[in-house]
Amino acid sequence: MSATVPIPVPFDSLAFLLVPARTFEQFEVGEVFRAPSRTLTDAHSAAFQTVSCDNHPVHYDAEWARRHGYAAPVVHGLQVLAFTAPGATLFPHIIGEVFIAFTEVSAKFLGEVHAGDTLYPALQITDLIPGDGTGTVVTAATVHNQRGELVLSGQHKYLLRTTPAA
Asked: Where does the MaoC-like domain start and stop, copy by copy (predicted)?
C-alpha cells in the first residue's frame, strides 16, 4: 500500500493567519475577547518596577505597605492595565489588515492587586462608530481577580478601515 503524498502548494505568508481576519462591519456589540489568566508573582512586580522606574515603597516594602493600610505590597496599577493589552487576546489577529491605530485608553483602579492574585482580563465591544472609510471599535476593558472582584475597569478605542463600497 502506498502513502498519498500531498501536492505542495506555494507558501503565502499573507495567508498564514491564526484566526480568520474580519472587517469593521463584521463586529458586533457584546463580543468578548479574553486574555489568558495570569497569577502574578513577586518577580512580575520586580520586573515591572525595573522597567517603569516606579520606586514607591507601596510596591515592594511589606512593612511600609502595612503601616499605610495595605495588606501587602501592591502590584503597579499600570501593570494591571497592561494585562488588558489587545495583543494579549486574539483581537489584533482578528482585525488583521484593517487596523489603523489604538487611539485611546482609560482605566479606573478599583481594588488592590497583590503577588499571588490571579487576574482575568477581557475586552468587550460596547460600541461601533462608523466613520468615513473608517470605524471605531470601543471596548470595555475589565480585570477580575480570583475572587471575582473587579479590580480594573476601563475603555479602549481602536480605529479600523471599513470595507470599501462596491
From this structure: 28-142
Q: Output the nine-digit C-alpha cell for 138.
A: 470601543
What is d(CA 156, CA 166) in angstroms, rounded to the nearest whole number?
30
For residue 95, how many other CB atoms are within 10 A of its CB? 21
Query: pLDDT grade, residue 32 (50/70/90)?
Result: very high
The total number of structural domains in the chain stands at: 1
Q: Which of 93, 146, 97, 88 is nearest to 122 (CA)?
A: 88
72-120, pLDDT tens digit by residue?
999 999 999 999 999 899 899 999 889 999 999 999 999 999 999 999 9
Q: For residue 62, what is the domain's CATH number?
A: 3.10.129.10
- Residue 95: strand, helix, or coil: helix
Q: Are 79 and 44 in contact (CB under 8 A)?
A: yes
Q: For residues 37 and 12, give the distance between their C-alpha atoms in angstroms, rounded to a whole number.
A: 33
2, part of any domain: no
28: cell is 458586533
How is residue 120 written as a grid cell? 482575568
Residue 95 lies in a domain: yes
**57 is in which domain, residue-wise?**
21-161
